[in-house]
């Protein structure tokens, strides 16, 4: 049975794995369903080969990050870790807003790209699947690595991510078979907001790494030190660090970076979610509301239409 101090790391990475895995599962489901519907089952081996290659590349990328070059100086390690953490925050932020902006047309965009790949040949189908799924895999690997570095744990983040990805695969299969229908607008809205908070913590961690590498100043200028009230070794401090990357000792530069990132990004994300809600029309005979832009227009069943 897990200790309470491990729950935070497992939960945070479980949700990351679930969200990213479900996005990848939706993409794969759309592509498979389209090939089946258009009577091109002969291209399914190339599609699955592209998906498998994307998974292998993502795992190799994660392993390279975790077991990369050794023997570097402390400053060099901190500089690399801090830089990659900031890059991970940029990628996850782009992904959150990309999904909100393009989800409504996700199915039609994938169909158009797959049509072009089919015309180009079997290898083009493999490459298209590799790129579509590989992007999600690389982003997930980098963000999970950055989160693990920020929390100082390895086993718990990996376990949480594996559980989240496993559930995403099950849900993706169930959605493809038509056994499960999820309110994707609500799912991506809540997980998107959560990931912004987590990304803020990863950003603060990256800033601290760059301070320790003497690239950024202010390592000794503390905004607050609540280690007496929240001992770093306590289970609740570990829980906060695992979930939102909170540290009891925070420098001014870390705190400023966190606020300047989380506040505006969360504001614009919430505004985009609210503006994308389906509009209700009270007048009789009016046209039905357009689908929410945060809900992928996806029907991954073999015979369905959006």
Tell me what the structure shows:
The protein is mostly helical. It has one domain (4-275). It is built from nine helices and two strands, in the order H-H-H-H-H-H-H-E-H-E-H. The protein has helices spanning 4-37, 44-66, 74-102, 106-120, 122-151, 155-176, 184-212, 235-244, 252-275; strands spanning 222-225, 249-251. The chain has a two-stranded antiparallel sheet. Helix 1 crosses helix 4, helix 1 packs across helix 7 (184-212) and helix 3 (74-102) packs antiparallel against helix 7 (184-212). Mean pLDDT is 79; it is low at 281-306.
Largest sheet: 2 strands, antiparallel
Estimate the strand proportion. Answer: under 5%
Query: What is the alpha-carbon Rg in Å?
Result: 21 Å
Q: What count of structural domains?
A: 1
What general form does the structure show? elongated
What strand order characterises the main sheet? Answer: 1-2
Estimate percent helicity.
Answer: over 70%
> What is the CA-CA span between the terminal residues?
43 Å
Low-confidence stretches: 281-306
Which class do the helix and strand fractions yield?
Answer: mainly alpha
Averaging pLDDT over every residue, what do you get? Answer: 79
* Multimeric state: single chain
The ordered string of helix (H) and strand (E) elements is HHHHHHHEHEH
Total number of helical segments? Answer: 9
């Amino acid at each position: 049975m897990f200790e309470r101090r491990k729950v935070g790391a497992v939960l945070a990475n479980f949700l990351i794995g679930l969200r990213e895995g479900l996005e990848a599962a939706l993409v794969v489901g759309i592509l498979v369903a389209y090939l089946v519907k258009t009577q091109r089952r002969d291209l399914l081996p190339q599609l699955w080969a592209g998906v498998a290659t994307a998974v292998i590349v993502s795992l190799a990328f994660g392993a390279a990050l975790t077991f990369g070059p050794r023997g570097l100086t402390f400053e060099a390690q901190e500089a690399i870790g801090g830089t990659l953490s900031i890059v991970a925050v940029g990628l996850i932020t782009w992904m959150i807003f990309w999904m909100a902006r393009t989800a409504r047309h996700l199915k039609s965009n994938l169909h158009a790209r797959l049509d072009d790949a089919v015309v180009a040949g079997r290898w083009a189908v493999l490459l298209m699947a590799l790129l579509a799924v590989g992007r999600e895999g690389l982003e997930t690997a980098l963000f999970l690595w950055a989160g693990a570095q920020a929390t100082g744990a390895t086993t718990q983040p990996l376990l949480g991510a594996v559980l989240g990805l496993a559930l995403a695969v099950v849900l993706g299969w169930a959605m493809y078979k038509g056994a499960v229908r999820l309110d994707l607008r609500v799912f991506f809205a809540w997980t998107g907001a959560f990931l912004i908070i987590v990304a803020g913590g990863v950003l603060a961690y990256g800033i601290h790494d760059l301070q320790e590498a003497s690239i950024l100043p202010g390592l000794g200028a503390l905004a607050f030190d609540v280690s007496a009230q929240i001992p770093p070794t306590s289970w609740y401090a570990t829980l906060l660090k695992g979930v939102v990357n909170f540290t009891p000792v925070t420098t001014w530069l870390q705190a400023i970076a966190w606020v300047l990132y989380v506040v505006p990004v969360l504001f614009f994300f919430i505004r985009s979610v609210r503006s994308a809600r389906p509009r209700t029309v009270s007048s009789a005979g009016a046209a039905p509301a357009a689908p929410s832009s945060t809900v992928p227009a996806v029907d991954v069943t073999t015979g369905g239409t959006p």
